[in-house]
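QA checklist item 7 of 12: single-chain prediction sanity check.
[x] sequence parsed
[x] length recorded as 57
[x] structure emitted
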Amino acid sequence: MHDLGQNLSQFSSMAEKSFKYVILGGRVVAGYAAREFAKQGVKPGKLRSFPKRRIRV
């Protein structure tokens, strides 16, 4: 089992940037969700997805 602090440190470079929308998970579902956000007018840089393998606790 991974230490939560170790997992959070992976995102230290992201700490300085904020996103209005976040998708937890990746692959096909995240792609479809991102495409729908784009269709709804969400601008680049406002959405971020975090693949499952990077958010284990």
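[x] summary fact logged: The helical segments are 4-9, 27-39.
[ ] second reviewer sign-off
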